Amino acid sequence: MGSVSGGMRCMKYLLFxxxxxxxxxxxxxxSLGLWLRFDSETTTIFSGDHCPTSFYVGVYTLIATGALMMxxxxxxxxxxxxxSQCLLGAFFICLLVIFAAEITAGVWGFLNKHEILQEMxxxxxxxxxxxxxxxxxxxxxxAIHNVLHCCGDSLPDPSIQLLCPTLRVPAxxxxxLKEFFNxxxxxxxxxxxxxxxxxxxxxxxxxxxxxxxxxxxDVM
Length: 220
Prior knowledge:
Helix content is 80%, strand content 0%. It has 7 helices and no strands. Helix 1 (7-38) runs antiparallel to helix 3 and helix 3 runs antiparallel to helix 4 (85-111). The chain is elongated. It starts with 6 loop residues before the first helix and ends with a helix.
């Protein structure tokens, strides 16, 4: 402990600050995933008979990513404060795993965006048809309509109006799904690129500090 000095000591505290922010970000991601999973409105989507796989994958990926980010942030904070090569090495490896997973998920999402959108549209259509024929799935439709601010599909159906928010001009849910998906996809891409850049700096800082700790101890 206390073996680094000068510029390396500054980097030590920079790395600690980075990991504290990383831990807080992980807490926010985990909270978002848990909120999406257990919120009263989105829970009805998960409980639907034809809930698309992408819903489950996306939400549970958020929960797992948030938990892992919290763990990595904790390891990084402890490694920086204790000047532990072992903890800093574990921090670097975990960051590398998250980095690879994020790149893989981003590429997969970009290549399969049309299939995901079709799956979401198919889920909405099945829920709508189930409501028209059996009267079931009203909570799911109500949740989708309120989130997207839309109402039904191209077929006029007065009964669907009971499950729609008050809108001056009711929008078609298929077009709103596409609009919502495309806008959020680009936003997620920008945020993802920013996180990747921050993670690269974190890996560089951890390795530089780890090497400085090793060299200073070799001198001693």
